[in-house]
Design goal:
Blueprint lengths: L1 H22 L13 H26 L10 H16 L4 H6 L9 H17 L5 H26 L22 H11 L1 H12 L3 H21 L2 H21 L3 H21 L5 H4 L3 H4 L21 H18 L10 H4 L24 H34 L8 H23 L4 H18 L17 H39 L3 H14 L4 H20 L3 H21 L4 H14 L4 H18 L4 H13 L3 H14 L4 H13 L3 H15 L4 H6 L4
Protein name: O-antigen ligase-related domain-containing protein
Pfam families: Wzy_C
InterPro entries: O-antigen_ligase-rel_domated, TPR-like_helical_dom_sf, TPR_rpt, WaaL-like
């Protein structure tokens, strides 16, 4: 009996890893507030729970700790320690534990999950399980085939009617964003190349064609993402992969054919399809077939509104992230708190970007994100982990000693996985990690360790007792409540988000009563999430307004009271979330018809608090100007609008209202200057500004 239970536990661990590798990149729903990352992270939590439970069962049965101390043990432990310390001293404990809502990846819970999966893999799988490793890689390549095939179909418009984004120009398939898809493809693209190389060496023509076509599908999809960081990562690691392969393998003539075929094929695809990097696209077919037209220079006014390049955006956000890291150098502001703390050091030049009012919950650079949110300790331990793994791999590859299990094919897989893992370091420099990529960041080292470790004891020789002792029986029984409670918690978390998403849709449709019911369901299933309270407060404000219009004074007063209480609870639970203050102001504004002066004063107080958190945010100072105006404080209103346009010169509505304020104070020259600037540099077609200047 114990042996059967132990074998079943081992099978559960292996099957769960297959599912993890295959399902994570594919998993999404259309009924959640965030379709992609949220679902992928919860899937990883669920499978990690099952894997951990089966691992514990094996430990109970064998009456010993089943744990493989790998070379990465101390680097990983140091990294985990830095994340725990940054969480303890975080400005928002809830966010640091669970991660920023809708993302989740990067929170302490996700880091612990990745480490559990890493050690579960290395402790329960060894070289005696080559079929398991092969099946894991097959699961990854099968997922890559499905994801990339769908991505290619996306390019030709299979689902463009469902997305706001121009998905035909930049595909994202089931990953949710083009750069995320590109980063994930980069991690895996060398696996079919190795399969192609290996099958050619064995004269397996049919299999070699399959692997060749798979590599073509992956590369084509990578081109269709339009991701410069993803393309750059491959450009850098592709020569590295072949260089190491040629150095380590003696039969170099055998390598020449697959090298030429893949390189020429990729080059031709790059020639026929537009590559993401402009300097390369100059040699693209679409560019070569365009005829030059004569340049005609026309004098035009410098109009501010334009789409900022990703480089310009990153420079500004990186500047703010570095300033934040310097301000809190030891442990940062807390794991995954960038969305809140970035506003403290947000550069004023951010206001001149086209995405000036976007919420940035990441630094768009994984390393700077760690620096800003976990300080020198977090970034230092992360870099130490990376450097240690690189040098350890170089050491192993230098030894190049094939064994019974570490065959020449294993060496090729090792090179492919290591090359793919290196691409993460590049794509993370220009972006940030997501669930599917972070899983590979931690599990590729686990796979490499498993196929290269010669000293690992074989699991096949594991001895189980003939009968279970009382302690073992009790231990096994206790595992079930743990797994059931954890899976129930995960399902409740998912269900809460499902109801929250429904509530948000009803709210947008002005179906406030239906939205109220869904908000209540969400808060009941996940009472710890302040976002639910924050948005539900606004819903209650609109219900109060409706009750007032229907002359139901008692209901109106009750809804208004509940609305303020919920909004204040949300702010109490997360006093650093700028959007909560904005939403609170919106909630109070919805209640203002009940008592305008009272609620305007409360809005003013909320906006003053927000302005302290985000001193360079012009939207807050603009709204302060509006509220002061409504409170008949003309001088303060004018001052706030003057501060607003000083921070953001192209703020059209702010300049228009400032001109109106000047006219009301009979400062006509100042009013004229504002209107002329608006028409010359911001919007020449602003009709109201023209009327104020008497321009036909």
């Amino acid at each position: 009996m114990p042996k059967k239970i132990g074998s079943l536990a081992q099978k559960i661990i292996e099957s769960s890893f297959y599912l993890l590798f295959f399902l994570t990149p594919l998993f999404l729903t259309t009924v959640n507030y965030e379709l992609f990352e949220f679902n992928k992270m919860l899937l990883a939590y669920g499978l990690a729970t099952i894997i951990l439970s089966a691992w514990i069962v094996k430990i109970i049965l064998q009456k010993k700790i089943i744990f493989q101390k790998t070379p990465l043990f101390w680097p990983l432990l140091l990294f985990l320690g830095s994340q725990i310390a940054a969480t303890i001293y975080s400005i928002d404990l809830h966010t640091s534990i669970f991660g920023y809502y809708t993302r989740l990846n990067g929170g302490l819970l996700s880091i612990i999950t990745y480490l559990i999966l890493y050690f579960a893999f290395t402790s329960n799988i060894n070289q005696a399980h080559p079929k398991f490793i092969h099946r894991c890689l097959t699961a990854l390549t099968a997922a890559a085939f499905l994801v990339c095939s769908y991505g290619i179909l996306e390019h030709f418009g299979i689902d463009d009617q469902y997305w706001v984004q121009d998905v035909k120009t930049r595909v994202f398939s089931t990953l949710g964003q083009p750069n995320w898809l590109a980063a994930w493809i980069d991690c895996l693209i060398f696996l079919p190349i190795v399969g192609f190389l290996n099958s050619l060496a064995k004269n397996s023509k049919k299999i070699s064609i399959i692997y060749y076509l798979l590599s073509i599908i992956l590369y084509t999809c990578l081109l269709f993402t339009g991701s410069r960081s993803g393309f750059l990562a491959l450009i850098i690691t592709y020569p590295f992969f072949w260089l190491i392969t040629f150095i380590l393998l003696k039969n170099r003539k055998q390598l020449l054919k697959p090298f030429l075929i893949t390189t020429i094929s990729f080059s031709l695809l790059t020639f026929f399809f537009t590559p993401p990097i402009k300097s390369i696209s100059l040699f693209n077919l679409s560019q070569l077939t365009q005829f030059d037209s004569p340049n005609i220079n026309l004098e035009k006014p410098a109009i501010y509104p334009k789409i900022s390049t990703s480089e310009d955006i990153r420079k500004v956000v990186w500047k703010g992230a570095i300033a934040l890291g310097k301000k809190y150098p030891i442990l940062g502001t807390g794991v995954e708190t960038f969305a809140y703390s970035y506003y403290w050091t947000r550069p004023q030049e951010h206001n001149l970007l086209s995405e000036w009012d976007f919420l940035y919950n990441k630094a768009h650079n994984e390393y700077l994100n760690y620096f800003a949110t976990t300080g020198i300790l977090g970034l230092g331990s992360y870099l130490f982990l990376i450097v240690f793994f690189i040098f350890w791999n170089i050491k192993i590859l230098k030894s190049r000693l094939p064994s019974i299990h570490y065959t020449l094919y294993s060496i090729l897989i090792h090179i492919a996985l290591f090359s793919g893992w290196l691409t993460i370091l590049i794509t993370n420099f220009f972006g940030f990690s997501v669930v599917a990529v972070n899983l590979l960041f931690f599990l590729i080292p686990a796979i490499i360790y498993t196929i290269t470790n010669h000293k690992q004891p074989t699991i096949n020789n594991t001895k189980f007792p003939e009968k279970l002792s009382t302690r073992q029986t009790v231990g096994l029984i206790l595992v079930f409540p743990f797994i059931l409670y954890t899976l129930y918690f995960i399902l409740s978390y998912w269900s809460a988000d499902y109801h929250f998403n429904k509530a948000e849709k009803f709210q947008k449709q002005s179906q406030y009563s239906l939205a109220y019911q869904e908000y209540q369901q969400a808060m009941q299933k996940n009472p710890q999430e302040p976002l639910y309270k924050n948005n539900a407060a606004t819903n209650l404000a609109y219900l109060s307004l409706l009750a007032t219009q229907q002359e139901e004074a008692s209901s109106a007063a009750q809804f208004a009271l509940q609305s303020e209480e919920l909004a204040q609870k949300a702010l109490l639970e997360n006093p650093y979330h700028l959007d909560f203050y904005r939403q609170y102001a919106q909630t109070l504004y919805a209640l203002s018809p009940i008592d305008s002066h009272q609620y305007f004063e409360k809005i003013k107080t909320a906006l003053y608090a927000a302005q302290k958190l985000a001193p360079t945010d012009p939207k807050i100072t603009y709204n302060l100007g509006v509220i002061e105006y409504k409170l008949d404080n003309q001088e303060q209103a004018t001052n706030w609008l003057e501060k607003t346009i000083a921070m953001k010169p192209d703020y059209e509505i702010a300049r228009l209202w400032l001109a109106k304020f000047y006219q009301a104070k009979e400062q006509n020259q100042k009013a004229q200057e504002q209107l002329e600037y608006l028409l010359k540099y911001i919007n020449p077609d602003n009709q109201e500004a023209k009327e104020m200047l008497n321009i036909n």
